[in-house]
Inverse folding.
């Protein structure tokens, strides 16, 4: 899977989840606020995905897959969680909750899509 396809998969999975979780936690007062939350979710993924992808490529020969992924995803979850907690004024636990759910779903979805593509070849 290319980095671009992986980024599209991450955006397609994470954005709806983030919006849904924000809706449940605090709701949207207007369509403009919904668009702002959409932009925030896009921005968080666009910030962390290239860093995660590049980090994985750099340490691919040094650490086994599970260890690499746990380290990289933990950093991503903390960075995105911090962004959500600060921008949305939710508190750090809720920010991490949003980020963790979205990133676990994105990672699992990406693995499933990768395996399906691999089987089709």
């Amino acid at each position: 899977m290319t980095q671009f396809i992986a980024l599209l998969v991450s955006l397609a999975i994470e954005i709806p989840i983030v919006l849904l979780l924000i809706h449940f936690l605090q709701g949207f007062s207007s369509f403009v606020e919904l668009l702002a939350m959409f932009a925030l979710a896009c921005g968080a993924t666009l910030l962390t995905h290239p860093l995660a992808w590049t980090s994985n490529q750099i340490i691919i020969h040094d650490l086994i897959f599970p260890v690499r992924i746990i380290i990289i995803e933990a950093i991503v979850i903390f960075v995105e969680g911090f962004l959500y907690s600060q921008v949305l004024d939710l508190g750090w636990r809720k920010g991490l909750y949003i980020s963790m759910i979205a990133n676990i779903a994105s990672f699992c979805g990406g693995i499933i899509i990768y395996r399906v593509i691999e089987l089709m070849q």
User: Anything to note?
Assistant: Residues 31-59 form the longest helix (29 residues). The chain is about 85% helix and 0% strand.
